[in-house]
Design brief:
By secondary structure, this protein is mostly beta strands. About 0% of the residues lie in helices and about 50% in strands.
Length: about 475
């Protein structure tokens, strides 16, 4: 439904419109707001943390920042509550807006709710409850009533649930259907054991009894092409109920390698004996992921993000394209990036030669690039503590230079063996087409190698050491049919 790095989905409905948000971790602007009317095609209409004064991060470090936001609509206003893991000890972040496009207000702190994955729920009497996961084995899921004007808790935090018995209960969402209150949880950890469980009660504060058939959704110990399914949210539609949840698409032999992070998927839900039953047999047409951006608009498209700081902090418009400044602080990198959304793809960047590089990033320790350096296009890779140039060819004399990265189906290595993950091809584009500089095994830019919670992004930054900014004239991205 939402391919590419879109984890921890939360969804709400207002009339005929659906709004969905996901975790963004270290990337800013934070928390894209997606809109749809059919639950199949989605467009980004804004970001909850679009204002750089509302959220800042101490560095570009991977898998930090925003964890598991929840979006809800109540009495004509949209509400989002989430965790900034950089400041988790200060409590949750709470913000609201009259329109999902924004502007969203300055976030309040909820200092009494220490943990991750917060949820908001309004009972019939108007009481608003915040429910969150502590991450502690002795009291995983806690709950308290909250004052939305101040962020203060109105009741002492109370233990709501210790889960169904699986590991790592988290991601709570509370909802009501008829006489029953339902507590939806993610359990089993966000890797191959991930699962969705559900419990119910006749009161929002419990006690909750778990479904005897739990988990209601899990692909653990299966051969399904989508794995790690969990962290779900339910929404009622005009003709029934649906569930959104995260999953990954691992490729290659065991343990399998997923490249684009945790993605958002959709399924139908029916009800039997007042318990939800998940039906994954939905036929959803693939979405188009291809685009070309010539940066002629007055502002950057909403697809553009950056690790650790807002793109507006280091970019500016010019008649030649978007200017990307060198980082002024070595805690950050000036990478203007977009999410990779396909298993195989190609990205091209038309740049002023001598000052730019095209980067594929998983985190600060796992990334590759084609960079302009001393009149050459150089293929570079950083994998953990190892950094290496893989090859170089002269840049053509014509301007601009077109740098290219490709992800293609893997081929056996020089000693044979089963192909794994993908091949990453580094090159430039000339009048003769794509000219390869080097290629490498894509496993080294996968979550199974890098760890963490994010997916691949691709974009452009200045070549280090030149002292000059990069000028990005145009950027194109296209999925490649496998």
């Amino acid at each position: 439904m939402l391919p590419g790095f879109h984890p921890d989905p939360s969804i709400c409905r207002v009339g005929d419109d659906f709004y969905l948000i996901t975790s963004t971790f270290e990337y800013l602007p934070g928390v894209p707001v997606h809109h749809s009317r059919d639950l199949a095609s989605w467009s980004v209409i804004g970001h909850v943390f679009a204002d750089r004064d509302h959220l800042s991060f101490p560095s570009s470090a991977g898998s930090a920042g925003i964890f598991a936001p929840t979006i809800r609509h109540h009495d004509g206003r949209f509400w989002v509550i989430t965790t900034d893991i950089n400041t988790v000890g200060d409590g949750q972040l709470l913000t609201s807006a009259a329109s999902p496009e924004g502007p969203w207000g300055p976030p309040l702190r909820v200092p009494g709710a220490i943990g991750i994955d917060p949820d908001l729920f309004w009972d019939a009497d108007g009481t608003c409850y915040v429910t969150w996961a502590t991450g502690r084995a002795d009291a995983p899921i806690m709950q308290a009533s909250v004052d939305l004007e101040t962020g203060d808790l109105l009741s002492e935090p109370a233990l709501l649930s210790t889960g169904s018995g699986l590991a790592h209960p988290e991601g709570p969402h509370l909802l009501r259907r008829g006489d029953w209150y339902y507590l939806l949880l993610a359990e089993g950890g966000t890797e191959r054991g991930h699962a969705v469980t559900v419990a119910r009660s006749l009161a929002a504060t419990g006690p909750f009894v778990f479904h005897p058939g739990d988990p209601i959704l899990s692909h653990r110990s299966s051969t399904d092409p989508v794995q790690n399914t969990g962290h779900a949210d339910l929404v009622e539609t005009a003709d029934g109920w649906n569930i959104v949840y995260l999953g990954v698409r691992p490729v290659g032999p065991g343990p399998g390698f997923h490249l684009n992070g945790r993605e958002t998927f959709l399924a139908k839900v029916s009800w039997e004996d007042d318990w939800p039953v998940v039906d994954e047999n939905l036929d959803i047409a693939p979405v188009s992921t291809s685009f070309t951006d010539d940066f002629s608009a007055d502002r950057l498209d909403l697809r553009w993000i950056a690790p650790g700081r807002h793109p507006g902090d280091f970019t500016s418009a010019s008649p030649r394209g978007v200017v990307i400044d060198q980082p002024s602080d070595d805690r950050y990198r000036s990478l203007l990036a977009t999410r990779v959304r396909d298993q195989q793809w190609e990205a091209r960047a038309d740049v002023e030669p001598g000052d730019a590089r095209l980067v594929l990033r998983m985190d600060e320790d796992h990334w590759v690039a084609v960079e302009c350096r001393d009149g050459h296009a150089v293929a570079h890779a950083t994998v953990g503590p190892f950094t290496q140039d893989l090859g170089a060819i002269p840049l053509p004399a014509t301007r601009p230079a077109t740098l290219a990265l490709r992800s293609t189906l893997p081929t056996p290595g020089p000693h044979g063996g089963t192909p794994v993950a993908d091949d990453l091809q580094f090159g430039i584009v000339t009048d003769d087409g794509f000219v390869e500089i080097a290629r490498m095994d894509g496993r080294y830019v996968s979550t199974e190698v890098a760890g963490g919670f994010t997916g691949r992004v691709v974009g452009v930054e200045p070549t280090p050491g030149t002292g000059r900014p990069a000028v990005l004239r145009s950027f194109s991205y296209a999925g490649i049919a496998g």
